[in-house]
Amino acid sequence: MDKVLKTDHRGGEESKYGSKLFATVSDSMVDVLQQGRDPPILALSKEAVPVILQGFRTAKSYMEILRKDTDASGHHHDYKNVCIQDGEDSADASGYHVCGGLSRYNMFREGFVFSNNSMYDISDPPSISSTSSSTKKIPTSTFRMDMCALYDTMSKIASNVLSEIASSLGLCRDFFETEYGPIKEHSQWHLKRYHPYGPPKETQASRKLPSGHQRTVDGRVVLLPVHTDPSLISLVVISRSKDDDRCAVHFDGAMGLEYHDDTDPDTPWHNVLASGSGAVILFVGSVLHRISGGVFPATRHRVAMAETALDNIVLDERVVATFFFRPAPHSILRLLPSPTVRERHLRNTTLNSKNYRGNVKHDRDISFSDWKRKVSKKYEKGRRPASDHSKK
After folding, report:
1. 3-state SS assignment for residue 52
2. What average pLDDT does the structure give for the chain?
């Protein structure tokens, strides 16, 4: 991991901004995950940062090509096999989608989806000549090569995080890979760009918000509704226009990304205060929450910004890579065989309180494929999450 995570930074150092920046996957980082509040942030090494920067550059270049001629149904003359079509299963789809594709969670987002270790390539479209200005913007490295490098880098970090979580629960370090793997082959990840005014060809020029958008109670625009991730853990990297090889971690916010703190009833929503191509934001997903009996609480989060700040996303493009590391479909979701989990489960059962933080109801064990099917239907049907985003 030395070539993936930064090693010359003191792990667990508390920044003056109140967020923990970790140089290594450690016990103290796992402690932060168990608190279920501000997500820990891992600093990438100087060797890993260029991989992330290149991945973002490549993805943005090909988004420019694809979105120009892709219609609202996901059809593109030159890239029929790359574009995600209407009606595809969001839990296992792979390809490019326009704003509004797959679910309401993509009202403001376009981008690429990779599921179950699938990896596709995108060549220059026949309609673009080698001398055109559009082609000059395309990186010389291939789309497939850069996406593979990006996913491999994040997978190494995820494997290390899951090993540390297993160890903290008294399980063998390879427990998650043995019981739920191969995780890399069954995970899903996205690389998406936000358009605050909806599909660029329709409303970007007029700076009008699309109909049906949501707002918080204080009037801010919700670009991504509140949710927990359908994963064991999720890694999030937010590209910033000021990123470079020398400085890729910025403590000036995460361009609207907020997490929910259940212990703060007055002001439960807080900004994630660091971002950049060198900062990996770590969230606990709802799968780990379920099988750990709430020992590792899933982090509710959203993206919300004041309407007056939306132009900042246009100027400083909000491009995000999100990695959902999840079990193999046949895996059975049941409480982990950990003394810590058993103790928590017994305590929850004794208290029998619906308001007990981290309490998880287990009517029966369920396969991940069945669980995933239920979750994806909610996403696709556009149902409002159980915890309404508008609450404070």
Report:
1. helix
2. 79
Average pLDDT score over residue span 154-177: 95
SS3 content of the chain, % helix, strand, coil (to 5): 30, 20, 50
Q: Which residue has the higher pLDDT, 88 or 182?
A: 182
pTM comes to 0.84
In angstroms, the CA 86 to CA 180 distance is 30
Distance CA 271, CA 134 (A): 37
* Residue 86 and residue 74 in contact, taking contact as beta carbons nearer than 8 Å: yes
- Helix, coil or strand: residue 21: strand
Task: For residue 208, count CB atoms less than 10 angstroms from its CB and return exposed for 0-12, middle for 13-18, buried for 19 or more.
Answer: exposed
CA distances from 226 to 111, 369, 379 (A): 20, 23, 12
Predicted pLDDT at 20: 60
Q: How far apart are the C-alpha atoms of 301 and 268, rounded to whole Å? A: 11
Residue 72 predicted with pLDDT over 60: no
DSSP sequence for 29-46: HHHHHHHTSSPPEEEBPT
Strand partners, 376: none
Does the pLDDT of residue 274 top 70, yes or no?
Answer: yes
Residues sharing a CB contact under 8 Å with residue 341, sequence separation 6 or more, in sequence order: 169, 291, 292, 293, 295, 335
Residue 387 has pLDDT above 80, yes or no: no
